[in-house]
Design brief:
Elements: E1 2-6, E2 73-77, E3 80-81, E4 85-86, H1 92-104, E5 108-112, H2 119-122, E6 131-136, E7 143-144, E8 149-157, E9 179-182, H3 186-193, E10 201-203, H4 214-224, E11 229-233, H5 234-240, E12 249-252, E13 263-270, H6 275-298, E14 303-304, E15 310-311
Parallel strand pairs: 1-5, 2-5, 2-6, 9-10, 9-11
Antiparallel strand pairs: 3-4, 6-13, 7-13, 8-11, 8-12, 8-13, 14-15
Helix pairs in contact: 1-6
């Protein structure tokens, strides 16, 4: 049984993530400090006062209140953010949430809110939900679980157009090429340092995905020849590059010698001090890692192991 509830919100937010995932201190990309976050740091206006809530569990051993509802798995999610999530529950984070709910033997409920400034404050901190499925490791805004995947930004281009085999933004063949870049993400810093910004085409980072999809627009521009290549967060690029038209080459950027890192670990996010809840989720991640890998690979997510080598089959 799946239930959904909309979080109260004012003006529609604009997605800062999924191009979460941008520059984090430890395993997080720079400009989407609010994904990126995505993949991604979501800015919160402040923690709301924590009071008693129906369905909350008893106090943890630390003496701090555990606000996790033990009668239903309540997930904080974006209603229009494929390939991550949507209200129709078609994203890979939706599939992972279903897996977690199954392990807990609980019904699944969503609180929907755009991935934008205020997302954490209006959902997790407001006690409307207890789990964010995708959060960059190292972001202190929430308590991170163990990471369940690692990916990187990727270079995307059409085969047979002179860029086959390109694995770095420093490839000489990219000089004078029109490269699509999401403004404010780590790769934009690299492109600027390499002197490629003059011919680059920027796409907005902060949008409400219910109304606009810069990544899909970039992919369409690559296919039409409007731009020669593009750079997207791997899970986004891997998904859209194989849907809606000509299949594009997606190459993880793992060889950049300058600028911020391109690869980041992604975790579950829960409220700080809810360690028992985090440990329970870690148990599920360890038990079901292979099934999670299968979901991610099915969505085209470029997965990397701890040695930065591609993962092409589920780990068992």
């Amino acid at each position: 049984m799946k239930r959904a509830a909309w979080a109260t919100r004012g003006r529609p937010g604009r997605s800062l993530r999924r191009g979460p995932l941008p520059a984090f201190a430890i395993e997080r990309p720079p400009a989407a400090r609010p994904r990126a976050r995505r993949l991604l740091r979501w800015l919160a206006g402040g923690v709301l006062a924590l009071g008693a809530a129906g369905g909350a569990a008893p106090a943890a051993e630390s003496g701090r209140a555990d606000l996790v509802n033990r009668e239903v798995l309540r997930v904080c999610s974006d209603p229009a953010d494929l390939p991550f999530s949507n209200e129709a529950q078609q994203g890979f984070e939706n599939k992972i949430a279903e897996l977690v709910a199954g392990e807990l033997k609980l019904p699944l409920e969503y609180t929907w809110f755009p991935q934008a400034t205020g997302f954490v404050r209006q959902t997790l901190f407001a006690k409307r939900c207890d789990l964010i499925i995708g959060f960059a490791q190292g972001d202190e805004l929430v308590l991170n679980s163990n990471h369940y995947y690692r990916s990187s930004y990727a270079l995307i281009y059409r085969q047979g157009q002179g860029l086959d085999g390109a694995t770095t933004l420093a490839d000489p063949r990219l000089k004078a090429k029109h490269i699509g870049i999401v403004a404010g993400t780590p790769p934009s810093d690299v492109i600027a340092r390499l002197g490629l910004m003059q011919d680059a085409r920027p796409y907005p980072l902060m949008v409400d995905r219910r109304f606009e999809s810069p990544a899909e627009r970039m992919i369409a521009d690559i296919r039409s020849g409007e731009i020669d290549a593009g750079v997207l967060w791997g899970p986004i690029g891997g998904y859209f590059a194989t849907r809606g038209g000509e299949k594009l080459t997606v190459t993880p950027l793992l060889e950049e010698a300058i600028g911020p890192r391109m690869a980041y670990r992604i975790t579950f996010g829960v409220r700080n001090h809810e360690d028992d809840w985090k440990h329970k989720l870690n148990e599920i991640l360890a038990k079901r890692q292979g099934d999670i890998d299968a979901i991610l690979l099915d969505f085209g997510v470029p997965l990397l192991d701890e040695e930065m080598k591609p993962i092409t089959a589920p780990r068992r």
